[in-house]
Amino acid sequence: MKEIEVVEKIKDNLKQKVLEITNPAPRRIFLKVDKKDLVEAIDFLKKNFNFYHVSTISGVDLGENFEILYHMANENCVLTVRTLTPRNDPKVPTITGVIPGATLYEREIQDMFGIKVEGHPNPVRLLLADDWPEGEYPLRKDWKFTRPEEKIPGGK
Amino acid sequence: MEAQEFKVPIGPQHPALKEPISLRMTLEGEIIKDADIRLGYNHRGIEKLAESRTYIQNIYLTERICGICSHSHTTCFVQGVERLMEIEPAKRGIYIRTLVCELERIHSHLLWLGVAGHEAGFDTFFMYTWRDRELVMDILEIISGNRVHYAMNTFGGVRRDLDELQIKKCLDYLEILKKRTEYYANIGTNEPTFVARLVGVGKLPKEKAMELCAVGPTLRASGIPRDVRKDDPHAAYGEIPFEVCTADTCDVLGRVIVRVKELFESYKMCEYILKNLPPGDIKVKVPRKVKPGEVVSKYEAPRGENIHYIKSNGTDKPERLKVRAPTLGNYAATIYMLKNGFIADIPLIFAAIDPCICCAERVISLVDAKTKKEQIMTMAELRKFSIEFYKKNPPKKEVIWPF
């Protein structure tokens, strides 16, 4: 199925839930949906177009909001579903109910951006160390690395 | 006697990977009942660092994500940025880039075959394949001057050209490699113990492979013909004839078959490229700044689908670079494969996704759940244990090599 057909079918079926859909390059589709329609949209894509494969989940810090991108793939194209979540209350629903393979990527997003994934089966830390301070999320734009002062044991 | 429950933490330190891994496994006797995963022991913050480097600097940064698939990450990054810059790279450059891609696949697969042989207790195989891997390393050195970080890619093409003498030398070496690989395929047929050790280990059924988003040879060994080179042709893959290799045994044997078949495909592709190298420039001039935009770039690395998401903001530095290396994509599937398997199969199943975890000495501590006593085992000891285990419990005979 060609990308244009996929775009048309998504528009017809999801109707006003589609906030924006573009096809900027061959085999690339970008779809924007609201956070509350995310799971439904992904379920629809999986069932109708065989988008069973989640390549990864990217997060982008836009200042006021965080943008979360779900890069999904089938035989013909890569479809990126994007959604926004406000910075002061960052939350997204889990998609592991639809695609179990997304579990590690959701844990990664949770660590790096502090976006809470609601309903995740095992929401423990994946990448950050156990003694990493709470409330510090390295991939947020306002997070800067400062090297802690070196203390030599027994030194002056 | 009642079977005791053990917790086995595996890992965590490994220097060669972007994702060193710690696995905590719950055992019941010899059987793995559950596995949990923790990463980040060697997290270098490359994604954060990339935001403060220029695009040119980022080529060399992405090259250092991985030692074995160094060319994969740069190619993925470079072709994404080229799309953002809206430039058409030089055709000869693209062909040379693809040639290095395939040579890298050959060296990675030969390395992997050796590791698989080593883990199965077939060290002759390991010695042979690693000796011949030197040949492909020599080819890469002839082309790029380097054995590991080739530094071939740049925006708009590649940095080094090939002359007639180099092409002739590469073709000669490839001829030797091809013969030797055929010989190994034959060794496999005549070595029933090797095949019997691999068959039925680390089962990953087709539906599960799809559900858990496995990638690369792991996915193809479960009978799913997905290959980024065919599905989303990048570089020169749209013009080079090749076939997607699959196997339907869904186990470690299938993963060996897929990789051996891919080796032969790669030899053919390399020869095709060397004989049909288009004339002309190897690169085109590119702007320093990149227009605002975003791109999803995919690439079939030796271990599977590699994906970069690049967002630009109009300056000479990217706004965001997201990298997903193929090994991370296979971890969810690995956990599934380990479940209900033997502890003696851990090294082999791990080796089968090619995470290069087995090439270093790793410490495993066995914790007795009742007495909380710990027993430290290195990967070498675990390997010895696994070989001993299968000596005592001989694997089933009369399995045929499916070539």
Describe the structure.
The complex is a heterodimer of chains A (156) and B (403). In chain A, strand 4 and strand 5 form a beta hairpin. Chain A has three helices and seven strands; from the N terminus they run H-E-E-H-E-E-E-E-H-E. Chain A has 156 residues and is an alpha/beta fold. The termini of chain A are far apart. The model of chain A has no long low-confidence stretch (mean pLDDT 87). Chain B has 14 helices and ten strands. In chain B, the strands form three sheets. Chain B has a five-stranded antiparallel β-sheet with strand order 3-2-1-9-10. Chain B has a three-stranded antiparallel β-sheet with strand order 6-7-8. In chain B, strand 4 and strand 5 form a beta hairpin. The termini of chain B are far apart. About 5% of the residues of chain B have low confidence. The chains are: A alpha/beta (156), B alpha+beta (403). At the A-B interface, strand 3, strand 4 and helix 3 of A face strand 3, strand 6, strand 7, strand 8 and helix 12 of B.
